[in-house]
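Trying the structure run again after the queue cleared.
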Amino acid sequence: MRMDQHAYDWCERRIDVGEADMPQHVPFPSFDALIDPSVLSSLLRRTVRSVATVAVEGADTSTDARFVSVAIDDEPTPSLFLKIVDSDRDWLAMITADDRHRAVTVWSEGVIDRMPPEVDAAVIACADWGDGYAVLMPNLHSELLAPGKPLTVRDFDALLDAMAAMHATFWGIPRSPPKRWGCVRRRHSCPTHRPRGLPSTDIG
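Done. Tokens:
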């Protein structure tokens, strides 16, 4: 399918969305409050009896983010992860002037709730964590693109569909999003690789 056909299809499906239509969320007061079995039961819509957490050592991430695995009811492979969002440790947050914790803001402001089915933001809920936040996410490791693996034509089609669907969904949002969203400014949007000389961070 040609790119212009993608654009045509999604213009036909355009939906006007206003800021007032977006639900608001408040981060849980603590990491412990978020992973309480009764809270997880409500969030996951299933019965959770026990929870075990383990800091993930040497996590292979592009931003030096820290992760904590969350295993439910003694499952052998953790079905959840907590990503620790800390602007002082995340180099990508540093170089894009992320002083509002965008990963949490788009959830708390209801932006993620309005994402179309083609876009899975993989965020369940968030909680306060020291000077930053903890983002609860499903374990999607098996669905991630392997490092060094080239994208296929099918992958590109899926990306185009997802981007078109997202733009169509938010068609009615003002050209300039509210400042409280902390969106990436144009002058900060180019860096994509960790700068040389920036010290890496360890879990601790």
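Residues 153-169 form the longest helix (17 residues). Worth checking whether this holds up in the mutant runs.
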